[in-house]
Each structure stands twice: as C-alpha cells, then as structure tokens.
Write a structure and sequence with these properties.
- It is a single chain.
- The chain has twelve helices and eleven strands.
- It is of the alpha/beta class and 321 residues long.
- The protein folds into two domains: 27-122 and 247-315, 3-Layer(aba) Sandwich (D-Maltodextrin-Binding Protein, domain 2); 125-221, Periplasmic binding protein-like II (D-Maltodextrin-Binding Protein, domain 2, 3-Layer(aba) Sandwich), CATH 3.40.190.10.
- A six-stranded mixed β-sheet has the order 2-1-3-10-4-11, with helices on both faces. A five-stranded mixed β-sheet has the order 7-6-8-5-9, sandwiched between helices.
- Helix 3 (42-58) crosses helix 10 (260-274), helix 5 (94-102) crosses helix 12 and helix 7 (161-173) packs across helix 12 (295-315).
Amino acid sequence: MRAILRLCLIACACLAPMPATAADSYPAKPVRIVVPFGPGGVADVTIRVIAQKLSERMGQQFVVENKAGAGGIAAAQAVKQAKPDGYTLFLVSNGTAVSASLFKSLPFDPVKDFAPVSTLAFFSLAIVVNSDDRIVSLQDFVAAGKSGTKFNVGTINVGSTQHLSAELFRSMTGVDATVVPFRGSPALVTALRSNEVQIAFEMLAPILPQAKAGAVKILGVAAERRAPALPDVPTVAESGVTGYAATSWNAIAAPAKVPAPIVERLNRAINQALRDPKVKEQLAAQGVAARGGTPAEMRELLERDIEKWRKVIRDARIEPQ
C-alpha cells in the first residue's frame, strides 16, 4: 500500500502545473525604451509608433524615454546599468556603430554590453541638389567632379550618418569635393538653395516636403534598395557607384544578461507589430521602411556597420573625440 501511495503522489506531482517563469508573465509592468535622441525626430516618431503597437499587443505600456546627447552615451549607460529583466530597452542605431570609432573610448561595448532583439526600421538618405541646378543625375555630378569641377557637399554634423555617407561617396567616386557640415536640416537646405553647397546628403523625411514643393531635386538614395516613397528614384549603386550603400537604421536591444525567453518573446511581438499594415503605412509616410529580423541578424548588422564606419572615419581623417 505504501508503495502504491508513493507512486500516486509522484504521479500527482508530475501532473501539477509547473511554476510560471518570468518570461511566461512578461511583461507584468510597463516597459521603458531609452532613446538616444530628442523628441520629434524620425527615430523618435518611429519608436513611438512601434511602442504603441507593442502596448496593444502585450498588454502593458511601452514608454519612450528620450535621453539625448553625448553621442548616445547617456542612453547606452542607462540601459547597461539597468536590471536585465526586459523592462529597460535601448533604441540602438547605426549611430551606435559610428560611436565605436568616433570616440576615443566609450564606457560601454556596443556589442558585448547589449542583447540584440530585433531591427525595427531602415531610413533612406537622399542625395539632393537645388531645383535650378543643371545637374539632373548622379552620373552628371560624378562626371563633372572628375572633370575638374569643384563642389561643396553639404551634410549635418560631423560624425553623423549623413556626413560619413558623403565622405564614403567622395572616396568611392574620386570626386573633387569638400564636405561641409551644418548644425541641422534647415541650415543645410538654406545653404543648398543659396548655392553655398551644390549637393547635399540628408535623411529623406525632412527632404521630401522640400522636393514636393519643388525647392530641391532628389537625384538618388544612398540605401541598398529604392525608397518606397520614391520608387522611380535610383540608388547610388544603380547610378554607377557599384557597391555603395549607406543606410540609417534603428533596432531594439536589452541589457546583456536578459533571459533568452524574454528576448524571444519581444522579438516575436516586434516582428508582428512591424507586419501590421497600419504601422507600415505610418512609417512609410516618414520615409521609413519597417523591417524586423532575428537577434542574430541584428548583431551581424551592428558588427558590420562598426567595421564599415571605422574605415570611413579613418580614411576621412576624422579625429576621434
């Protein structure tokens, strides 16, 4: 009888429900997403659209916390030092990859200190000229530059994706050009329209209204693919600069030791959100292509961009800060 009773107890124990893990109940409270940019920019608008959809899908608020400045260092440190429980996330960008070489030293390792979750969105860079300019294609610009015409190429801040994309273009084409950085998009557009610079590299979102108004002409996009908002505008590679690609992107990461099941749960929810037609439409209106992926793909993208921009920074002789 004792043996039978013992077997019955063991069987009951096996049938009893297993205790819930943290991942099973995640998220049980609001999640904050630390963003290394100020409010109102393309990255901020993008993450707010996605955060809203995650809140709807996962039953808890995903709260955006803007922590701009110092090349994203303050935001990265806040996430690195947070408890690795999935309730503090980091908006990683290609700017994170640039920072690895733009600064002499960082208080964090962009690869080792964070657990990649998923890419979110890719932004096209537009290459533009004044609407009255005689140049009508990138081929015209490259041909004129190689024949001896000197150009000023406008971008925003030194070390920005726009600035480094222009440096990469200059080095790959051999065009005789001086890259001139400005403090922001309005100043850059003013310089372009006044012919202070003859061509400019800028994110598509702030340029689209100018192009629609006829103030500037978009000659090409710097990404690997054509921009959804400009299906008839060629990429730089399609315009004859084989191998050229410069894409700005955003992604989500967590502190390095966050449990893998939480990463998997987040990844699944993010990819579902990015497939939502309304999300795609909202982002496309900003010149943004929604595109998720696996944690491994995100890590590969980050590592590849760190090496890519390190070479551009070195070749352009940009002194690390």
